[in-house]
Amino acid sequence: xxxxxxxxxxxxxxxxxxxxxxxxxxxxxxxxxxxxxxxxxxxxxxxxxxxxxxxxxxxxxxxxxxxxxxxxxxxxxxxxxxxxxxxxxxxxxxxxxxxxxxxxxxxxxxxxxxxxxxxxxxxxxxxxxxxxxxxxxxxxxxxxxxxxxxxxxxxxxxxxxxxxxxxxxxxxxxxxxxxxxxxxxxxxxxxxxxxxxxxxxxxxxxxxxxxxxxxxxxxxxxxxxxxxxxxxxxxxxxxxxxxxxxxxxxxxxxxxxxxxxxxxxxxxxxxxxxxxxxxxxxxxxxxxxxxxxxxx
Length: 296
Prior knowledge:
Heat Shock Protein 90; 38% helix; single chain; globular; alpha+beta; 20% strand; five-stranded mixed sheet; 2 domains; four-stranded antiparallel sheet; Glutaredoxin
C-alpha cells in the first residue's frame, strides 16, 4: 500500500491557518515512548526535519484495544492536527480516525450551527448557505475572503447566502480578536456597516499590525457610515466579546481547528480552496435542482 506523502498529509498548511489548540493530557498507553513514536511517524510518513511533531491528548478512542492521541504537525506559523490510534500494547498505530457509518456528519453540523444572529449577505431565497469561520489576521482567510467576494458571490449570484463566524486564533494572531469584536460592534448598527468594515479590514490586512491596529480601525470605521461615538463605546467596552466567544465555542463543537473553514449546507471545506468550494456548491445545487453556471 502506498504511504501517505508529506505533501498530501500537510496540504492544508498551504491554504489554512492552524488554530494551535491544546487540551490537558489524559491516561494513555503505559510506558509509551512519545519521542520514539514521533520519530517513527516522521520516518514512516516522510515528514521533513523542519516540521515539528508533537503527540498529545491521550484519550479513549471508543474502540476496544485502542487509545487515541492527537498529533500536531507544525511548520512555521501553520499547524495541522491528525488523530493517532495506538494499540494498548504500544506496538501498532495508524494515523486517522475510525468512522461510524451510522453517524451523519452534515446533519450533526447543521444541528449545532447558530445562524439567526450571524452577519449574512446574499438573498434569503438562496438555496446554498456558506458559513465561513474566519480570522481577520490570518493570511489564508484574506485569500478566503477574496475567493468568496470576487469569485463565489459573483459566479453563483443569487444562489448563495454567505454567513460570517468569528474564529480568531488568539495564540498566534494578537489583533484578530479585537478586530472580530470591532466587526460585530459595527454589525450592531446594521448589516451594511458590518460588511463594510469586514471588507476594509481584509483588504488592508497586510498594512495592519499590533502597533497601528487602533489607528487603522478608526480610519476604517469613519469610512463605514458608523455612528462613531456608539461604535467606540462598543469596542472599548468589548460589548460584543461574548458573541465572538460564542462563535469560537461553536467552532469547537464543530471540531473546526483551522481557518478559514467553510460549511456549504453543512459540508466542510477546509482552507482557502476555490475548487473545493465550487465543487461543494455545485453538488448542493444539483440536489436542489438549481442551475449550475456554465464553466468559462
